[in-house]
Structure formats: C-alpha cells, structure tokens
Amino acid sequence: MKTASIPAALPDYDRQPPYSMEAEISVIGGMLIDSDAVPKAVEIVDDSMFYREANRRLFRGMVRLFERGDVVDVITLNEELKVTSELDSAGGASYLAELLDAVPTAANIEYHARIVRDKALLRRLIDAASDIIRDVHDQGERTVEEVMDHAEQRVFRVAESHDRQGFVWIKEILWPTFEHIERLQESAGGITGVPTGFKDLDTMTTGLQKGDLIIVAGRPSMGKTSWVLNVAQSAAIEHNTTVAIFSLEMSKEQLVQRFLCAEGRVDAQKLRRGKMSPEEYQRLAAAAGHLNTAPLWIDDSPGSTV
Length: 306
Known about the structure:
The protein is an all-alpha fold. It has 13 helices and 2 strands; from the N terminus they run H-H-H-H-H-H-H-H-H-H-E-H-H-H-E.
C-alpha cells in the first residue's frame, strides 16, 4: 500500500522575525544628531515599523518634539521621555549615549529608513500569512471563495502599506508639472491624452488623461456599456493603447461579440440569429483580424471587488 510522503523538513515558524537592528539604530541615531534628518525619516517610516520597543518610543518622542517645533537632540528627547515616563522603557540615558557613539553621520538615513520599512513589511507579510493559515483551518460556514477573498485582502493591505509616500516637497513636483504644461502649450489645443473616438468630447477634454477617474452614469439601457466599449475599442485598435475591462454583468464572449459587431459594423440581431449577408460576414471576419492583435484584456470573474 502506498502512503503519502511527508516533507523531510517543515518551515520553522519560530525563527526570528526579519529586522535590522543596525538600520534601526542608524535611523534613530541619525535623527538625534541632525534635526534635518527627522522629516526625511518620517516620510519613509512610522513608529510601528521599528522592531525594538525602545526604538519605537524614541522615534515617537522625536516626532512629538519635531511637530511642536522644538529642537531635537539628546537633551530635549531625554526630557520629553521623562515627562511621558518612558525614559526607562526606551533604554534610559545610557542607550541614548550609545546611539550617539554608534552613529557618526545622518547622511544615509533615507537608505537605512527604507531598510527598516522593508523589514517591517516582511514581518507584516508573515503575520498576514499566519492569519491566512488560521483562516483556512477555521473555514466554518464560509465558502472557499470567501476565504480566498479574505486572504487576498490581507495581502493587499500589506502591499498598500508599502505604497505609503508621505509628504513630498513641492519643489520635486513643480518642474515635472511645468514640463507637462509646456507640452500642453506646444500642442496648441490638440489631443494630449488618449482619444475616445468621439470628436466633440475629445475637443472638450483633450482626451483621457493619466490619473483621471471617469464615471459614466445614466439610466438603465441608455447605452453606457456600448459607449464604454466604443471608447475601449478606439483606444486599443486606433491608438494601440492597452485596455483592461472588468465585466460584472456580461461574459467575455458577449463582450467580444459586441466588439466584433461594432468594428465590423454588423447588426447584432443578425449575428445572433445567424442571418448575416456574405458581405457582413466578410466585414465581421476583417473585424476579427483587427481585434486579434489589439491590446485588449477582459476579466469577467464573478464577485470581483474594487
């Protein structure tokens, strides 16, 4: 009788979580010796990203001083932690002195802060994976789809925390924005975005622009889906722009039929009834050739969420 093989070694879930004490010390020490380093660190990390509790308390104390407009140094931080009764739990005055000796410069604080952030994200990913494992074992009355949806949400939350950008100095945004304005000026009223295929609309909007959120609203059966598909078709076929379509109502086959009819200028009723003329069938075949190479992607997965 054959039996299922058991892996020789299972993952060791009791291992030390990922962290870099050197990077944490470099960030905390850098903030202590150079007050200009404080906003640089705050843009990248928050107190929850430090593994050692003492470093979390020190970071929070310096952020409080900075937000009040006070000087950030060993003396002011020492007094701040005394007021909040956190000095001992933050390592005491001796730990503050050790930090000054261990960190000679704050020049690389942004690089070290990103290491702290990345290690924290790995720990959060481990926590998410542990939650997912428990969730799978304790499925209860939930469907497999519900369990998978919860697992995706847990991982997405970790991914979203990685995208945290914080404050950006206006100087860093000003010139890229001005360059965009110069391109607009050079276009002299032309289409600067992705054309929709509707001339009057393109004249008003100068095309679909990056970063735009466009909501098409209307009563049922007023042609919202048809209009959106026409825009997608124009962008993909006429302008070779990659388009992704998420459909919660129509299947991918139904959407493709609509694209074929629109591109081949064939009556959809005739297609469904199989009563196309030879000329219409030829136009439909030609439309299939155009769509075959178009950068169009369709997802009709049920239960998709935003």
